[in-house]
Amino acid sequence: MSKELLKMTATEAGAAIHEGKVTSVELTQALLDHARALNEQVNAYISFREEAALADAQLADEEISAGNIRSPLHGVPMGIKDNIYIGGEVSTMASKIHEDFVSEDDASVVKRMKEAGIVLVGKLNMHEYAWGIDNNSPHFGPVHNPWDLDKVPGGSSGGSGAAVASDMSFSTLGTDTAGSIRIPSAACGLVGLKPTHGLVAKYGCFPLAWTLDHIGPMSKSVDDAAALLQVIAGFDERDPTSVEVEVGNYQAALRGDPSKLVIGVEEDYFFKDVDSDIEKHVRAQIDALASQGATVKTVSIPSLAYSEWAELATSLSEASAIHHEDLLERADDFGEDIRFLFELGELFSSVDYLQAQQIRRRIKQDFAQALEDVDVIIAPTLPVMPPNIGSAVADLNGEEVDLIDNFIRFTGPSNLTGLPALTVPVGVKNGLPIGLQIIGRDFGEETVLNVGSIIEAGNPMDDKRAPTGA
Hints:
By secondary structure, the protein is α+β, with helices and mostly antiparallel strands. Helix content is 37%, strand content 16%. It folds into 2 domains: 3-171, Amidase signature (AS) domain (Amidase signature (AS) enzymes, Alpha-Beta Complex); 258-457, Alpha-Beta Complex (Amidase signature (AS) enzymes). The protein is built from 16 helices and 15 strands. An 8-stranded mixed beta sheet has the order 6-8-7-14-15-11-9-10, sandwiched between helices. A 3-stranded mixed beta sheet has the order 1-3-2. A two-stranded antiparallel ribbon has the order 4-5. A hairpin with a 3-residue loop joins strand 4 and strand 5 (141-142).
């Protein structure tokens, strides 16, 4: 089978299967062969489930032949991050402590993916317990960025990003607590959506920080992200943070007129201390929207000045509470980097945590007020480019800066607020992609995706793809 088929988007692959141009079994086998062959270089997968995947693909072909097409993604093969449970199978969380953990139930999102006829081919590599941004795992090895194998792919969903960018998965899911969908999506040239907190149920996903965690799509196109969100969105009473809200028609929303859009730009935080080339590409897209008739307004969100502290106080405290017993009894079984973070989290007091929640409340209020006057806020996704694997610093216009602090600086606020945030690729610097972030109102995914589709339609990537792929 031609590897050109593996370059298709997920919705294109679904259409090809449904139109009889290729079977799900053929496409699943081709993807598995490609992923196995490339995994030694990219290290995107922790494990494969070839026998189960081919059986699921066979069932999909039988149902499709009988005219029972469950969704636009029926029969499409995908990997899934290894902190999202497939019932009866191992989910390691890329850790030593949970290396043999088997869940009884499917995660909410896995259940919905199976109901949509998606074929799950394996579990994707990640930063241990989803608490890191470079995906350099001491237990399963580093994931390599398909655009440049020496560079980090971003994290914690680095395996997810690398798999989709290298055509080892047609689309997938990531988890996002401070940017772990959007960071690797930006670093790997993908579309990544962190939905509104509560829109996608998290039952069956190992938590990092209860009040900040999200699950969302990582895809080759905005249409793919919309199609996958359509599958996974919805209420599940087993998740106490799940919200019972009407699910939108996300693919149908990708038809908007840019002349009716009002774009917000927050200069003091989101355009401060940014790589000059990243800023240039992001501002070029804002200008392009304005040239198509969109209105651009400056907005002010003064409380963003405190967001980094509030994000860290919240995430570190909640993560340390989750891992407290293992930190006492099995500290040496954690990777050195995350053991340090969990130990650091133990130092925050209840006063620190509660003060962070007061700051968080103010940030939410300030965003809500800003979004009364604009449809979305546009910003860079990352202020710096991905460094080499093993580096703790990044380059910011010739100055070395801390990698973790800068990688989460522009993504963390949307976890504090719970607002939907989408990253789309908008250019390339030194062979690596650049991401633009679109932040919307609560449950405003349709608008956020629509703006992303308008930007994507302008082909800002000039059809560039990761060289490591099909």
